[in-house]
From TrEMBL:
This is Ribonuclease H-like domain, reverse transcriptase, RNA-dependent DNA polymerase. InterPro entries: DNA/RNA_pol_sf, RVT_2. Coiled coil: none annotated. It comes from the Eukaryota.
Length: 547
């Protein structure tokens, strides 16, 4: 679910990353009279003040200098973007004006080169929170003000003077950018390079397995930093080291110290007595509001076991833009909701030409979300520090091509940190073969997770145990005598046998009723679904997760 291919983290026309795209979705749902252009904003004092604050910030950072446009160069236009910032409960925090470059007219090789900037995967953030909870560390949140204005530009880029603030005596002149502006294609990369150099100068080491995680270890302290654009989450021990890091960052950038992590990319985080819980209640409400289902009836399961969805050509076509938008919102909800992984994953296969039956199935998922808005995951103090995984597959269920579905879920101690539902790439000839293919998917993820955990905690790599509920598949992984039955299976799937022989992983049998990945591969009956939901570690956090 969280692999880089699922979300494009690079700059997107005027939005910085997934963070801004998330906030833009929020904008659709919490309607306020936000100006659409400078003309509308210029009649309201609070927006005029917001624009002045933005220009002050740009000038303070020495972002640009006024000059005459050289021959052969084009000036990129600027536009004002206005946003009402809110907290998790929808209360207005501030009115923000952002000066954005029209980066979509930039040409590769002329005014930009590389644009990619790494951000921390959500599963890495969950692992970071799980490690912090297990050690009873506090997790703090820092935000860099006007982060992109700090990134140094290598290319020669010119922009027009901002609307409403054109200097009369210099009419016709343009600004040459020394540092990046929001909206520029290379802005995320320029900022990331600046931050990377800053953290390295403070003796932090970049994690080779996750480019947006930095660690710093000494004899009696350890600090872990997770970076998502301009949001930094910091954990470690002792507390004075965290405070020292905050002070060092405030010397270099204009920072907002948001204290203990409470709200991060639409995820609500609660830290109580060393335990850390995560949920997306407010975001779930916004999805329901956008879909016009805030007052709908609740349902106990997201998909009925008898539901059979196919890419049919008959049936009424529905608005594909609306369908894709809902799928995108639900996929973001999966960051704290493994119970939705199968239903949302299955519905994601019909985005090209969705029909009424597919939209009806989405409505049932939304009705289920309505009744479980406050469900989430808790990472416990002393919950254990070992990673173990579960692998399962469904053989020929709900698919036209005969391809199975792989479900994998990993735990740090007692709580889930990584999960995914995927359609298998090849057709399996038996349930044993389907389980074998699924287990290979789990191995690649487990190797990455065990190495990542070793780097973050500065401990030795430990063998990860994978639980599989098919004895034939386990025998196939361990026993070359079975090779005659598996000679037709694609060579890449035999990678698992090598890992078992090298003792990188350990494969164990688990009975079906304790197979936690079962909820990720098919629609279950009501009682079975509710039992499995509790078993995987999802609970209602509405009153107090610690009652």
């Amino acid at each position: 679910m969280d692999s880089p291919s699922h979300f494009d983290h690079t700059s997107v026309r005027g939005f910085r990353t997934l963070k801004d795209l998330y906030e833009n979705t929020e904008e659709l749902l919490l309607v306020e009279d936000e100006p659409k252009n400078y003309k509308e904003a210029s009649s309201d004092q609070k927006w005029i003040e917001a624009m002045k604050v933005e220009l002050d910030s740009i000038n303070r950072n020495n972002t640009w200098k006024l000059t005459t446009l050289p021959k052969g160069h084009k000036a990129i236009g600027l536009k004002w973007v206005f946003k009402t910032k809110r907290d998790a409960n929808g209360n207005i925090i501030k009115h923000k004006a952002r000066l954005v470059a029209k980066g979509y007219i930039q040409e590769h090789g002329i005014d930009f080169e590389e644009v990619f900037a790494p951000v921390a995967r959500m599963e890495t953030i969950r692992l970071l929170l799980a490690i912090a909870a297990n050690n009873k560390w506090e997790v703090h949140h820092l935000d860099v003000k006007s982060a992109f204005l700090h990134g140094d530009l290598k290319e020669e880029v010119y922009v027009t003077q901002p609307e409403g603030f054109i200097k009369r005596q210099d009419n016709g002149k343009v600004y040459r950018l020394i540092k990046a502006l929001y909206g520029l294609r290379q802005a995320p990369r320029a900022w990331n390079i600046k931050l990377d150099n800053t953290l390295k100068s403070l003796d932090f080491k970049k994690c080779a397995l996750e480019q947006a995680i930095y660690t710093k270890k000494s004899k009696d302290s350890i600090l872990l930093i997770g970076v998502y654009v301009d949001d930094l989450i910091i954990t470690g021990t002792p507390k004075k080291e965290i405070d020292k890091f905050k002070a060092q960052m405030e010397e270099k950038f204009e920072m907002s110290d948001l204290g203990l992590l409470a709200y991060y990319l639409g995820i609500e985080v609660t830290q109580t007595n060393g335990d850390i819980s995560i949920k997306q209640s407010a975001y779930a409400s916004k999805i329901l509001k956008e879909a016009g289902m805030i007052d709908c009836n609740e349902t106990l399961i997201p998909m009925d076991p008898g539901t059979r969805l196919t890419k049919i050509t008959e049936g009424t076509m529905v608005n594909s833009t609306e369908y894709r938008s809902l799928i995108g919102c639900l996929r973001y909800l999966l960051h704290t909701r493994p119970d939705l992984s199968y239903s949302v994953g299955l519905l994601s296969r019909f985005m090209q030409e969705p029909r009424e039956q597919h939209m009806k199935a989405i409505r049932q998922v939304l009705r289920y979300v309505k009744g479980t808005k406050d469900h989430g995951i808790t990472y416990k103090h002393n919950g254990g520090n070992k990673i173990h995984g579960y692998s399962d597959s469904s053989y020929g269920v709900n698919t036209q091509e005969g391809k199975g579905t792989t479900g994998i879920i990993f735990y740090y101690g007692e709580s889930p940190i990584s999960w995914s539902t995927q359609k298998q790439a090849t057709v399996a000839l038996s349930s044993c073969e389907s389980e074998f293919i699924a287990a290979t998917t789990v191995v690649t993820q487990s190797l990455w997770l065990k190495r990542l955990l070793s780097k973050l905690t500065h401990t030795q790599e430990e063998k990860i145990t994978i639980q599989v509920d098919n004895k034939s598949a386990i025998a196939l992984m361990k026993n070359p005598v079975f090779h005659g039955r598996s000679k037709h299976i694609d060579t890449k799937y035999h990678f698992i046998r090598e890992c078992v022989e090298r003792e990188d992983i350990q494969v164990e049998f688990v009975s079906g009723e304790y197979q936690k990945a079962n909820i990720l591969i098919k629609a279950l009956l009501k009682i079975k679904f509710l039992t499995m939901r509790q078993l995987i570690g999802l609970k209602d956090l509405s009153h107090d997760a610690y009652d």
